[in-house]
Amino acid sequence: MITDKIEQYLVKENNSKPLVANKVFTTMFTKKCTRQSAYRYWAYKPEEKQARTLINFELGYLVEKMVLDKAKLSGVPIELNNIWLTVKRGLIHVTCKPDGLYTNKKDLYNVEIKKMSEYGFKDFKKNNLDDSWGYISQANMECEAFKQSGKDVKGTIFIVVNSNTGHIAEEFIPYDKKSVDETFKRIRIVLESTKNTLPERAFEPEVRGNKEYLGTQCSYCDFHKLCYPKFKLQISKGGYPLWVN
C-alpha cells in the first residue's frame, strides 16, 4: 500500500534525470576503471537502479547530515559543508564537493563521511581502507582542491558509520600528491577517448571451473551489461549479486 508507491517513485525519479555528456566531476574518475568513467563522460545510458540501491544512497546522505549536525552540537564544527570546489591542472578543470573542512586551531583537514557495512567497517577499523571504491583518490582530489583555494589541508579525516550496528570511527589519511597524479592520468585517458573508441576495461571476469563470474567492481557497475551482456544475475547465499556466464 505504501512501500510499493515509494519504490515506484524512487525509480521513476531517478530514471527521469537527463543524461549530460562531457561533464567532469571528481567521483567519475576516482575509480580505477577508465571504461566506466568513459561511459559516464560520454553519457551512455546506465542500467536502471533498483529501489533498494536508491534507498541506500539516501541513507548515506542522512548519515552524513547526522554526523555533521552532531559534530556541530558537540563543539567540533565541520565547516564549508558540501561546497563546490575546482581542481585545475592545465586546461583540465574538475569539480568536487567535499563533506567539509575541520580545523583543530593548528591544522586544516578535509573531512569525508561514509556509511559502511559490517564487513567494510571491520576492515576500516583494522586500518585496511584500500582504494577499491575510489574513496582515497576522491579524498586526495578534494585535498588538492582545498590547497588550490588557499587552504593547506594536511589530509583527510574519514568518519565512518557502521550501518549494521551504529558504531562510529575515524581514521586520518595524509594527503598524497601521487594519488592526484594518477587520477589526472585517468581523466586524460577518458578525455582523449571518443564515444565509439572507449578505454580498456580495468577488470576481467573470474574463471571458476566452467563458469565466469564478474568481480565486485563490475557487479556493482552501472554499465556492466554493456561490457558483459551475456551474464545473468544470481544472488549469493549472503544476499549479494553475482553475475555469471
Précis, in short:
By secondary structure, the chain is α+β, with helices and mostly antiparallel strands.
Task: Looking at this protein, list some descriptive labels.
2 domains; 8 helices; single chain; alpha+beta; 10 strands; 4-stranded mixed beta sheet; 245 residues; Lambda Exonuclease, Chain A; 36% helix
Give a written overview of the molecule.
The structure is a single chain. The protein has 245 residues and is of the alpha+beta class. It has two domains: 3-202, Alpha-Beta Complex (Lambda Exonuclease, Chain A); 204-245, no CATH class. 36% of the residues lie in helices and 22% in strands. The chain is built from eight helices and ten strands. Strands 3-4-5-6 form a four-stranded mixed beta sheet. It has a two-stranded antiparallel ribbon with strand order 1-2. The longest helix is centred in the N-terminal third of the chain and has 23 residues, at 51-73. It is globular. The two termini are 37 Å apart. The model has no long low-confidence stretch (mean pLDDT 88).
Spell out the blueprint of helices and strands:
Elements: H1 3-15, H2 34-41, H3 51-73, E1 85-89, E2 92-96, E3 100-103, E4 108-116, H4 118-125, H5 135-148, E5 153-162, E6 168-174, H6 177-191, E7 206-208, E8 211-213, H7 216-219, H8 224-227, E9 232-235, E10 241-244
Parallel strand pairs: 4-5
Antiparallel strand pairs: 1-2, 3-4, 5-6, 7-8, 9-10
N- and C-termini, Cα separation: 37 Å
**Approximately how much beta-strand content do the residues carry?**
15-25%
Which CATH class of the largest domain?
Answer: Alpha Beta
Roughly what percent helix? 25-40%
Please give the largest β-sheet: 4 strands, mixed
Summarize model confidence as the mean pLDDT.
88
Overall spatial form: globular
- The count of helical stretches stands at 8
Structural classification:
alpha+beta
Question: Strand-and-helix sequence, N→C?
Answer: HHHEEEEHHEEHEEHHEE
Query: Rounded to an integer, what's the Rg over CA atoms?
Result: 19 Å
* Strand order of the biggest β-sheet: 3-4-5-6
